[in-house]
C-alpha cells in the first residue's frame, strides 16, 4: 500500500461523555465489533469510583489501567482506527483537553434519558474551539428515553451545533423496537444481546407493508410520521458541513446491547476525516509531506517508583516515523533516536518499525519530553493547538523537608512536564504556586512527590480567581501594568507573563483600565 493510501485509511478519534453515559461500553463494543477483542468486559473503566479506598489510591489504580487503554487501535473494513482514551473524571479534564488535540474527530456519547450533561458541555467547548468534527451517539435506548426530537433540540441548543439524525429510534425502553437507518435506508430490529451484532433488514420504501409486519402497525405509523418530519426539518447530510464542524450527525442505540453500533461505525469510517493538516507557528504541515513530524500530547509516568521512566505519546502529523532513526527534539535542539517505539493495538503493545500520520506511538522517555514538544527530521517547527488552560484552583507549594529541596524541585518540574498541573512562580515573593483543574490533583501531586521523588510538600492557601496570559498591543502599557500589579504577576513554566487575578471584579477592572492589553484564559492565542 502506498504512503497516501496509508494516510487515507486512518481514523484517529476520541470518545467523550459525561461519566456514566456509556463511553467505556461504547469503546468496548467498537473493539468487539472490529474484532480487536473477543469478549465483552475486556475494557476496564478508567473511572474514579467513590469507594472506601482513598481517592489517590483509586487514581493510582486508574493510572495503571490508563496505560493500557491510552490508545486502542484496530482494523475494520480496511480502515485503521485509533481510539484515544479520555479520562471521564472532571478533575482530569485537562488530560482530556490535551488528548483532544491529537484527535482528528470525536464521538460524543449522550444518555437518552439525561440529555446533555455538564462535562459534555465543557468538552464540546474544546471541540468547538478546535473545530473538531463530532458525531453524536444517543445511548441507552433500551431504557425509557426522552422523545428523540426533544433530544435533538437539547443537543442542538446545549452543544451549539446543528444536528442531523442518520438513524432513528422506534420507541424506547419496553417499547423499543429497533432503529431505522436513514443513511442506508434499512431497518434493524432490536434484540438485546451482549455479544452478537444484529443484521439489518433492507426496507428502502417505508410505505411498504413490510414495515408494519416487522414492527407492528402503530409503531410503523409513528415511524412514518417521524420520518416525514425529519425530512422536512433536517436536510440530507452534507459531509463538508460535518467536516467543518457545523453539523453533527446523530445516531441512536444501546451500547450495552450492541445495538446501533454497526450503523455508527459504518458511517464513521465513511465520513470521519483522515489525518488533517496541522498548524505550526511557522507553517501548516500536511500529512502527506515526505518528512516526519509529530508532537507529544501526553506523558505517562511509570507506575514503579524504582523506574522513573515515562512513556511519551506522540501523534504523527506527517511523513513516516521510523525506528532507530535520528530525529530532532526541537525544544532542546538534540538529535534522538528510539529503539523501542510502541504501537497500541487494542490493549496490546508492540514494538513497531514504522508509523504513519494519524498513528500514535509511545516513546520511552527518561525525562526529556514535555507536553507539546515537537519531533522533526531537522526543521524547527512548533505545533500549535496544545494550550494550557487557566486552572480553577490554586495553592502555594512549600517544602516540608529542608533536606530534600532538590528532590522536591525536580519532582515538581517533572510532574509539570507531564501535565499533572501548572506551575506559576510569583514575581513578587518568588513563591511557587500550583494551579489545578480539580482538588484531587493536589492529593496526586503530594502522593507522587513522596513516592516517586522522596520529597515532602505542604500546601498553603492562596486566594486566586484565574490565571490570565497577557497579550500586549502596547509594550509601555504592559510595563505600566506590571509595575502596578507587581503583587499579582507571575511567570508560567515557559517564562510567559501571567496575571493572577484574585477576583472576577479585579480582572474586570484590569480589563477596563488597560484597554491595550488582552487577558487570555488559555496560554495560546
Ligand atoms: P462511562 O462512564 O461513560 O464510561 O460509562 P460506562 O460505559 O461505564 O457505563 C455506565 C453504566 O451504564 C454501566 O453500568 C453500563 O453497563 C451502563 N450502560 C452503558 N450503555 C448502556 C445501554 O445502552 N443501556 C443500558 N441499559 N445501560 C448501559
From TrEMBL:
Location within or outside the cell: Cytoplasm
Pfam entry (one): GTP_EFTU
An example Gene Ontology CC term for this record: cytosol
GO MF annotation: an example: translation release factor activity, codon specific
Keyword Nucleotide-binding: yes
Alphabetically ordered keywords of this record: Cytoplasm, GTP-binding, Nucleotide-binding, Protein biosynthesis
Summary of the function given for this chain in its UniProt record: Increases the formation of ribosomal termination complexes and stimulates activities of RF-1 and RF-2. It binds guanine nucleotides and has strong preference for UGA stop codons. It may interact directly with the ribosome. The stimulation of RF-1 and RF-2 is significantly reduced by GTP and GDP, but not by GMP.
PANTHER family xref list: PEPTIDE CHAIN RELEASE FACTOR RF3
Name of the protein: Peptide chain release factor 3
Organism: Odoribacter splanchnicus
Lineage: Bacteria, Pseudomonadati, Bacteroidota, Bacteroidia, Bacteroidales
Amino acid at each position: 500500500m502506498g504512503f497516501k493510501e496509508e494516510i487515507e485509511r486512518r481514523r484517529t478519534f476520541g470518545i467523550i461523555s459525561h461519566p456514566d453515559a456509556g463511553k467505556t461500553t461504547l469503546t468496548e463494543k467498537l473493539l468487539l465489533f472490529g474484532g480487536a477483542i473477543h469478549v465483552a468486559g475486556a475494557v476496564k473503566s478508567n473511572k474514579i469510583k467513590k469507594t472506601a479506598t482513598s481517592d489517590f489510591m483509586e487514581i493510582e489504580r486508574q493510572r495503571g489501567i490508563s496505560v493500557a487503554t491510552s490508545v486502542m487501535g484496530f482494523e475494520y473494513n480496511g480502515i485503521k482506527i485509533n481510539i484515544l482514551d479520555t479520562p471521564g473524571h472532571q478533575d482530569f479534564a485537562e488530560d482530556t483537553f490535551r488528548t483532544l488535540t491529537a484527535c482528528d474527530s470525536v464521538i460524543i456519547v449522550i444518555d437518552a434519558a439525561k440529555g446533555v450533561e455538564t462535562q459534555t458541555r465543557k468538552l464540546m467547548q474544546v471541540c468547538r474551539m478546535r473545530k473538531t468534527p463530532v458525531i453524536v451517539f444517543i445511548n441507552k435506548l433500551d431504557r425509557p428515553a426522552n422523545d428523540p426530537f426533544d433530544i435533538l433540540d437539547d443537543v442542538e441548543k446545549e452543544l451549539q451545533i446543528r444536528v442531523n439524525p442518520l438513524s432513528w429510534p422506534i420507541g424506547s425502553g419496553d417499547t423499543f423496537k429497533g432503529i431505522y437507518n436513514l443513511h442506508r435506508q434499512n431497518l434493524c430490529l432490536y434484540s438485546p444481546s451482549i455479544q452478537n451484532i444484529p443484521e439489518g433488514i433492507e426496507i428502502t420504501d417505508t410505505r411498504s407493508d413490510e414495515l408494519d409486519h416487522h414492527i407492528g402497525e402503530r409503531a410503523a405509523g409513528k415511524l412514518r410520521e417521524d420520518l416525514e418530519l425529519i425530512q422536512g426539518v433536517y436536510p440530507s447530510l452534507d459531509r463538508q458541513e460535518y467536516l467543518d464542524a457545523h453539523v453533527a450527525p446523530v445516531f441512536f442505540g444501546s451500547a450495552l446491547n450492541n445495538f446501533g453500533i454497526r450503523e455508527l461505525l459504518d458511517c464513521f469510517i465513511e465520513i470521519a476525516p483522515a489525518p488533517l493538516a496541522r498548524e505550526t507557528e511557522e507553517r501548516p504541515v500536511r500529512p502527506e509531506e515526505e518528512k516526519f513530524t509529530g508532537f507529544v500530547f501526553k506523558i505517562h509516568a511509570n507506575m514503579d517508583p524504582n523506574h522513573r521512566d515515562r512513556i511519551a505519546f506522540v501523534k504523527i502529523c506527517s511523513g513516516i516515523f521510523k525506528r532507530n532513526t535520528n530525529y530532532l527534539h526541537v525544544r532542546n535542539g538534540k538529535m534522538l533516536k528510539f529503539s523501542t517505539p510502541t504501537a497500541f493495538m487494542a490493549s496490546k503493545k508492540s514494538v513497531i518499525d514504522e508509523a504513519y500520520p494519524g498513528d500514535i506511538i509511545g516513546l520511552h522517555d527518561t525525562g526529556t519530553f514535555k507536553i507539546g514538544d515537537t519531533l522533526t527530521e531537522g526543521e524547527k517547527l512548533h505545533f500549535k493547538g496544545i494550550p494550557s488552560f487557566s486552572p480553577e484552583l490554586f495553592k502555594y507549594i512549600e517544602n516540608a523537608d529542608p533536606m530534600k529541596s532538590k528532590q522536591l524541585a525536580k519532582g515538581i518540574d517533572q510532574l509539570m512536564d507531564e501535565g499533572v498541573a501548572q506551575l506559576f512562580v510569583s514575581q513578587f515573593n518568588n513563591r511557587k504556586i500550583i494551579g489545578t483543574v480539580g482538588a484531587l490533583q493536589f492529593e496526586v501531586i503530594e502522593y507522587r512527590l513522596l513516592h516517586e521523588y522522596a520529597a515532602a510538600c505542604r500546601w498553603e492557601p492562596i486566594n486566586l480567581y484565574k490565571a490570565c496570559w497577557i497579550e500586549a498591543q502596547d509594550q509601555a502599557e504592559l510595563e505600566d501594568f506590571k509595575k502596578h500589579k507587581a503583587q499579582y504577576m507571575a511567570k508560567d513554566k515557559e517564562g510567559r507573563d501571567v496575571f493572577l487575578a484574585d477576583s472576577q471584579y479585579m480582572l474586570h477592572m484590569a480589563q477596563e483600565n488597560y484597554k491595550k492589553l488582552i487577558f487570555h484564559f488559555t496560554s495560546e492565542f
